[in-house]
Amino acid sequence: MLLSLFAALPMVLCAVITVELALELLRDSDRPRRCLLIWAATATVLYTCHYIFFHHVHWLLPWSNTVYVACNLAVYPLYLVYISELADTQPLSSKPWAVALLLCPAVAGGLASGIAYIMMSPGETANFISTYLYEEGHGNLYGVAKTQAVIHDVTRVLFSLEVVGVLVFCVKKVRNYNKKLDLLYADTERRSLNWVNIILALLIITSLFSLVANRVGRQWFEGSLWLALPSLAFTSVLFTIGWIGLHKRLAAKEILQRIDIREIEDPIQAISTINPIEAIDTIEAIDAIDTIDAMKPGASDRPKEEEEKLPLFVKAAKLIEGEKLFLHYDLRLDEVADMLGTNRTYLIYALNEGKGISFKEYINRLRIAYAKQLMAENPALSKSQVASMCGYNTPSSFYRNWKRYEGEEGLKGL
To answer: Based on CB atoms within 10 Å of each CB, which residue in 243, 244, 312, 354 is the most buried?
Structure first.
C-alpha cells in the first residue's frame, strides 16, 4: 500500500497541476503558462509510465516504456523552454527550429525504442522486460532485445547530459535577465526572477536524484521503500514549480518592454561596443535638461552651446542628482532617457562609461547616501519614514540596499 502511494504521488500531483494550468489558461491565456502546461502534461505521462512499471503491468510495458523513453528525454528541454519564456525577450518558443532541435533526442529515442519493440518477438520482449527492465542485466539478451538494451543505455547517457546542460542554460538565462533589469530599473524586486533560482536550486537537488536513479536503474527502487526518496523529492519540486507557475506572471517580454539591448550573454559588454563618439554625436538636442537648467539662478549666463558639449553621463547626473529623481519610487531608465531626449542604449553606455555601474546601483547608492543625510539631520525620523522618503516602497527594500552598500556594520545603527 505504501509503495503504491509513493509510486502514484508524482503522477497524481502532475495531473492536478496540469488540470489547474489548463483551467487557468481558459480564464486568462499567456505563453509562459502554456509552456508550463506542456511541460506538466509531459511530466504526468512520464510518471504514469513510472506507475505502470512499478505495478508490473507487463502487457502495457512495451508501449509505456517507449513513451517513457521519449518523455524522459523531453521534460528537461521543455522546462528550458518555459524558463526561456520567462527570461528571454525572444524566447525559444518563438523559434520552432530551436524547440525541434531540443526535442530531437526525445523523438529519436522514442522512435528507436518503439521500432525495436515492434521488431522484437514475444519471447524477446518478455526476456527484455524481465532481464533488463527489472534486473538491469544484459547477459541473457539476444537478437533485437540486445539492441533495445543499447538504445536504453544511450538514452540514459543523453538524459544525464540534458540535465546538466539545461540547468546551466537556465541559470545563465536568469542571470542575464536580472542584469538587464539592473540596467533599466531602480527597483527590481517585483520584476526579478530570483524565485526561479529557488526552483533551480531544488531542481539541482532533485536532478542529483534523477542522475543517481538513472544510473542505477528504476529496478533498484522496485519493491523497496527507497522509492520514497525520489518520490518525495520529485513531488516537492513539482509542487513548487506548479504553485509558482500558477501565481507568477512575470515574463521578459512584458517587463523589458521596447528592449533594444542585444540578446547576448553580457548586456554591459554589448553596450560597451558602441562607439562613444558616434553615440554622443547622434544624440538629439537635450530639451528637458535645458528647460530645467533655465529655471536655476544664473542659468541664463551659461551659453547653451557649452551645455550641449557636456558628456551624456554628466547631463544625466545633473538631472538625476540635481532634481533628486532618485527619490522617485520605481524610477525607470526609460523615463530619464526621455527627459534627456536620448534613447536608453546610449544612456546605459554613458552611465557605464562615466560611472562604471548599472542604473540600479547608481540610483540606490544615491538613495542610501541621502538616507544617511536624513538620519543625521533628523534623528527622530523612523526607519520606515526614511525608507519612504528615499524612494523605497518597503522598509525591507531599504534594509536590503543598506546592507548591500553599507554592510552589516551599517545595519547595526538602524
So the answer is: 312
